[in-house]
Amino acid sequence: MIEGDEMARIPQQVIDEIREKTDIVNIIGQYVQLKKSGKNYTGLCPFHEERTPSFSVASDRQFYHCFGCGRGGNVFNFIQELEGLSFQEAVVRVAEMEGIPLSSQYMTTSKQVGHNKNDSLYQMNQHACEVYQHILKNTQIGQAARNYLEKRQLDSELLEEFQIGFAPDRRDFLVKVFEQRGYTKEQMAASGLFVQLENGNFMDRFYSRVMFPIQDEHGRIIAFSGRYLPTDNEADDKRQPKYLNSPEGEIFNKREVLFNLHRAKGTMRKNQEAYLFEGFMDVIAAYKSGIPNGLASMGTSLTEQQIRRIDKLVHQVVLCYDGDQAGQDAIYRAISLFEEQSQLKMSIVSLPERLDPDEYVKKYGAESFVQLAQHSRQSVFQFMRQYKRTGRNLENDQEQIAYLNELLIELKKVDSVIEQDKYLNQLALEFNVSRDALQQQLSQIQLPSPVATVQYDLPVEPDVSVSQVPKISVQVVVKKTQLQKAQELLLYRLFNDPSLNKRLKADEVFFIDEIYQEIYVLFDSILEGQGSFTIQQFLDVLQENHLRGKVVEIASMNVPKEMSDQEWHDVITLIKKHRIQELLITKKNEQQLARQQHQTDLELKLAVEIIQLTKQLKQMSQ
Ligand SMILES: [Zn+2]
Q: How far away, in angstroms, is 143 Cα from ligand 1 center?
């Protein structure tokens, strides 16, 4: 059941320890936006597509379960399924996420075992990052870059946090390092770190650039963005693009990346809020100022995948783009995209003097920036009121009416009646029109239903590894029969008090449905094998999705804590009666066959058996 027998196993004791130190709500909350509901947390299932939440996490029992698609398990199972890892790798990942120190032997094991073909790509990016960092920190050729970064107010702590490095002005620097490390030509070609010549040789893609690694949601380096380091030769400088990114490939898809997401996630979840910036330098500036939950897309406009990822993690997004016209246009586009594709609340931070966040922090300092970002936000309507003025001559009646009409559509989208009322008053006053006329016009506006216009390209997930999880179809919920309920109750009792297994065997009870039989056989073999049984350990070894989901469903049942003798008797009787009824049907069929074939002896023998079974059944019903 556990895969990879040749690898050094993490002992059960260590697994249990990690489990005890981990809160499943915290881990799953990093992937799914969870809402508290009674003892449980609910959210949209990450394993199947849905609009109303059927995914729940039980914090007391430390399970997750989806009654839409039937998946379920413990914290390790969740990471395993979502990230497409082996069980052992999932244990290591959970330990990493929770900051629980783990002996290095398991870490290396998990990396060696990784059968993921992308592993070498992550590894190469990681190596390149270490080399670039070393050059920046410790060498003479890194001096110019250090000066440049100092001027940009990036201190050593920030350089360390964002793993910033420097690619020296040589076309064969990283080529040599990587060839020495024994990477193959295929690996080097796939890495995106090199340019391959016609003769098959490689050159460094990045040179004379300050290197910013781009990480995926889990902190793995998937690409770089290199900022050209200006030299004294202006003509040379002009030939170079300011920023150069790794090409897209197996592990790097610009449409999916949100810069800083792996650092921001925790705060995003806690504050239910994310800041969205235009560039990653802005994210770093915000981070430095004390806003860790900033994100940026990679030089592209927002994509559906990115919006959905943000939507799953937070309730509110704060748009903080450049103060220039291009930035304002970008905000306008972003608002429409978020409105179309999410239910997120939005607010806007407008920066003065056409500054971008990075420039603003440099000019006015971190404190002033945080003040602005947190306490000078505009609502979407306020932004629109300003934005839609640009290029319009509002002295002209025609243009004024067009402006008001567009603005009323925006006002219609405002949820709060009080807010609407306030803005109506302001508009009436500003344009000297009657409030009633505005109100009347407003009431006539019909907005297209936002949900109807949403176009989801199902089911593209922003995370590379997540997209490997096969989406499974939703089970049709069928009402359980009494018999099924009885079998589940019996399993529930066994899970909670394994000693009942002896009684079960003495009573000669057998499960009827195949799925319960399978679960029972595994339960029994574990109990017999190790003399003890816990549900969490059971989930560790159950690798079959359908069994695991069922086990969690059973273990989450809401039944009286104590089992009464009456309950045991009722359940056992129900199951036994069913057995006998089944047997009766079989015997009657056999009897009929014997009669047709004139096998009188057999027919008589079966008749006796049938009478006995019927008697048994009668006795049980009394
Ligand atoms: Zn589901």
A: 53
CA 610 to chain centre: 58
What is the 69 CA–ligand 1 centroid distance (Å)? 4
Q: Are strands 316-320 and 294-297 parallel, antiparallel or unpaired?
A: unpaired
Burial of 443 (0-12, 13-18, 19+ CB in 10 A): exposed
521: buried, middle or exposed (CB in 10 Å: 19+, 13-18, 0-12)? exposed
Angle at 448 between CA 446 and CA 451, to 5 degrees: 140
Task: Quote the CA–CA distance of 183 and 320 in Å, as a whole number.
Answer: 42
d(CA 553, CA 548): 9
Residue 325 carries which side chain, given as an amino acid letter?
Q
230 CA to centre of ligand 1 in angstroms: 52
The pTM is what? 0.57
Residues with beta carbon < 5 A to ion ligand 1? 45, 47-48, 66, 68-69
- Under 8 Å CB-to-CB from 549, ≥6 apart: which residues? 65, 66, 69, 70, 71, 72, 73
Contact 242, 228 (CB under 8 A): yes
Joined tokens for residue 494 = 């066994």
* Cβ neighbours of residue 254 closer than 8 Å, sequence gap 6 or more: 245, 248, 297, 298, 299, 300
Tens-place pLDDT, residues 453-507: 333 232 333 333 333 333 444 444 457 888 899 999 999 999 999 999 999 988 8
Ligand 1 centroid from CA 467, angstroms: 15
Which DSSP category does 367 fall into?
Answer: H
Tell me how far the alpha carbon of residue 545 lies from the centroid of ligand 1, in angstroms: 12
Distance 142 CA to ligand 1 centre (A): 51
